[in-house]
Design brief:
Oligomer: single chain
Number of helices: 3
Largest sheet: none
Shape: flat
Strand content: under 5%
Helix content: over 70%
Order of helices and strands: HHH
């Protein structure tokens, strides 16, 4: 068995290269730690508080959708302008 030294070197190399692995769940929690804010228990809210909370969520979602719409529209205008330039002014 003349391959004992190479196998031993491979095993040693694998042991030295080991690292602690984090799961995707742990990685998400660590990266987005400050993005969540305080925990809000919607089951213990009064109906008025729940209605305000839902309205706030809807307003936030509408703001995000408006931002995405502006970005998408600007990208499409740029693409159309480039296509028109190359089709008619070349």
């Amino acid at each position: 068995m003349s391959f004992g030294g190479s196998v031993l070197a491979m095993i040693t190399s694998l042991k030295n290269n080991k690292r602690s692995r984090t799961s995707m769940f742990e990685k998400e929690i660590l990266e987005n730690k400050g993005n969540y804010g305080d925990f809000i228990d919607h089951k213990k809210m009064s109906p008025q508080e729940l209605q305000k909370f839902r309205a706030a969520l809807v307003a936030k979602r509408q703001k995000e959708q408006k931002k995405l719409l502006i970005i998408f529209t600007s990208i499409m205008v740029i693409v159309v302008a480039v296509v028109v330039y190359f089709l008619f002014f070349d």
